[in-house]
Design brief:
293 residues, alpha+beta, Beta-Lactamase, 2 domains, five-stranded antiparallel sheet
Length: 293
């Protein structure tokens, strides 16, 4: 009668765990939910969830008996070696401390259950017990059932996460191209440098004319090597003044056009600040033709 009651409790636990995982769309939350639930249900010393997922990397979570999150809770080199050297296909108890996956928590036996994702072992759930008397086949079966459920859930959430990341990447790329198109449409020359004086933006107006330079030849290069015809000391001082003061600098310049005529320019050097720190991270240089004014 007691075994029937235990079986009913185990089924209820697995059922409730499965329902809760239906609403998890982030791999880290899946790992946390499974580790916490197993640790509490099994009255274990600790439980860790480790998985290496494609396009995401290592997802990990650990919790101890006190319900506290573990910071350095697993032996990473051991886990990576375990993944590389044909890991066991079925769960097994481990009593050799040198093979324990759970780090920094005292325990005498560890049950390691491999996570099978798309037919390949991609991680594990490890549960640490204080002694062999605290662990039995019933608990092993419960860990195995939870591991199978967790593998399906984290696989789905990983695909969802990858799709979201891909969508964000596409949106960022579209935004970059849109911003670039706006800058190219403006009737002024624009370029942007970072604190290492590397060019990060170079609009179309900087490509045209006698002194124009193709964008592909400018992006990523040092501004002083690209604008080698200008006196480096003067140009460097202008940039340094903006980085140091955070104030807009305006300079009038003259150039000779292709037909030999003189052009007059108003060059503005504008600080671009980090929204969180307020630090000037880039300088935007805008050159406007004011010859006709």
């Amino acid at each position: 009668m007691r075994r029937g009651s235990e079986a009913s409790d185990e089924l209820k636990f697995i059922s409730e765990l499965g329902r809760s995982l239906l609403f998890m769309v982030h791999p880290k939350k899946v790992a946390a939910r499974v580790a916490v639930a197993l640790r509490q249900r099994l009255d274990a010393e600790a439980c860790v969830f480790l998985a290496e997922l494609e396009n995401i990397g290592v997802v990990s979570f650990g919790v101890d008996r006190r319900g506290e999150l573990l910071t350095s809770f697993f032996h990473r080199p051991r886990f990576e070696r375990w993944l590389e050297l044909l890991p066991p296909q079925v769960g097994h108890p481990e009593k050799d401390h040198t093979e324990f996956m759970i780090d920094s928590i005292d325990h005498a036996v560890e049950y390691v259950s491999p996570l099978h994702i798309n037919g390949t072992v991609k991680g594990l759930i490890a549960v640490g017990f204080n002694g062999t008397a605290d662990f039995d086949d019933v608990k092993a079966n419960l860990i195995e059932a939870a591991t199978r459920m967790a593998a399906m859930s984290i696989n789905l959430s990983a695909h969802y996460e990858a799709a979201i990341n891909s969508s964000i990447t596409r949106a960022k790329e579209e935004h970059r191209r849109f911003t670039e198109a706006i800058l190219d449409s403006l009737p002024v020359s624009i370029y942007v440098i970072d604190r290492d004086y590397r060019i990060v933006t170079w609009n179309r107006q900087r490509e045209v004319g006698l002194q124009g330079i193709p964008r592909d030849e400018a992006i990523g290069r040092n501004i002083f090597s690209v604008l080698a015809r200008y006196p480096e000391g003067q140009v460097r001082q202008e940039f340094e003044d903006v980085f140091r003061t955070g104030e807009i600098q305006r300079i009038e310049q003259q150039t000779t056009a292709e037909d030999g005529s003189t052009k007059h320019w108003m060059v503005s050097k504008i600080p671009m600040r980090d929204p969180e720190t307020g630090e000037v991270t880039h300088v935007i240089t805008v050159g406007e033709d004011v010859t006709m004014r």
